[in-house]
């Protein structure tokens, strides 16, 4: 949801629920991962601040 509101629809959001649904269905995985990478690069958190990484292994 944060990706949609703060990144994908930042300048112009879809006019209807149907357009929202269609837009969501056409999101490419790379578009979302690019957003996640941008967040990671601009975050003030460092790797030592991440305490719970057990779900990654």
Q: Key terms for this structure?
A:
0% strand; 57 residues; 53% helix; elongated
Write the layout of secondary structure elements.
Elements (H helix, E strand, L loop, with lengths): L1 H7 L8 H9 L3 H14 L15
What report would you give on this structure?
- InterPro entries: Post-transcriptional_regulator.
- Pfam families: Post_transc_reg.
- With 57 residues, this protein is mainly α.
- It has one domain (1-53).
- It has three helices and no strands.
- The chain starts with a helix and ends in a 15-residue tail after the last helix.
- The mean pLDDT is 85.
Largest sheet: none
Mean pLDDT: 85
Rg estimate, integer Å: 15 Å
Number of strands: 0
Unreliable segments of 5+ consecutive residues: none
Helix-strand sequence: HHH
- Helical percentage: 40-55%
Silhouette? elongated
- Tally of contiguous helical segments: 3
In brief, what are we looking at here?
Pfam families: Post_transc_reg. It is built from three helices and no strands.
């Amino acid at each position: 949801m944060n990706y949609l509101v703060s990144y994908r629809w930042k300048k112009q959001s879809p006019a209807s629920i149907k357009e929202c649904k269609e837009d969501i269905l056409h999101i490419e995985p790379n578009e979302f991962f690019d957003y996640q990478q941008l967040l990671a690069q601009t975050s003030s958190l460092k790797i030592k601040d991440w305490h719970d990484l057990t779900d990654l292994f």
